[in-house]
Write the structure tokens for this entry.
Amino acid sequence: MKPASSTIRFTSVTDLGASAEPSTTVIVADELTAGFVPPGFDPGRVAIVERGEAAKSLESLDLLYGRFLELGVGRDWTVVGIGGGSVSDLAGFAASTWLRGIDFGFVPTTLLAMVDASVGGKNGIDFRGWKNLIGCFCQPRFVLVDPGLLSGLPDFDLACGLVEAVKHGIIDGDAHLSAIERAVDSHGVIDRDALGPIIGRSIAFKSAVAEADERETGKRRTLNLGHTVGHGVEAIACLPHGACVATGLAAALGLAIERGGSPDDAGRIIALLRKLGMPVSLEEARKASPESSELSPAVFRDAVALAMASDKKRLGQDVLFAMPMAIGDVRIEPVPLEELRDFVRRMP
């Protein structure tokens, strides 16, 4: 059966009423993104959730289900997540499981959510500190992309979001990655006027991959590039997701070089990530985080290595690892978990 696909609309958030009937819509947002709810939608039907990764918890899910119950959310309703990736992950999972699944859509408000989190049909929450252990595959009916919502996003948050676009460029090939490089000047300043085409290209790429392999049994596994080590770093350092993925990309590139990957392509990617102000080594990630900077380098590396035990890409004692051999050549290779841990303990 061919998976359902989402309608992607590039338009103002004020056009949300064309995609969701206000009288039967509940909006999920955090305290800041609730400010983007357009006129015509009842503020009494806005469910406020915690900001950031804290939203992706069983406690937040329970509170959101309770709000659905209070509002009388039925099968003819629509859930709309307005916010970053954590809001869309929670809202999508809640909608996918409420009454065995009701209609939902997203209005992403961060670059990371626009290029990655809101597209592809992965929804879920964290469990006991481990990323995305509880979740489902279910496509939103629509994603409304309004690049104007990024105007107030801080430069560092924008750079973190661009890391996911860089990941897509590494997988897709030179033309895609070059377009991203051109949007970042020599001082690491991102040309905000160039973001529209970058967002569109990332969405088109990820949508095509997800539609062809919704359940992640083949090509879609390459989209996990940078996330095996990245999620381990995120569990210990608690840095923003994009910064952790940048560290994970650097790790994957280092491992790929040991297996015959291109040092020149790796250097080019690392240079771009460094220009964006991202950590490109475990030591840089450790020092950047108040949560981990007091740990010794050895203790930090060991903690990251152990955190990878919960990786969803494990198959027995192996991890199905996205290996970037070159730009446009990312392969899925089974790597023994212990070998991967040993690499993490000795990488820069």
About this structure: The chain is about 45% helix and 20% strand. The first helix runs from residue 58 to 71.
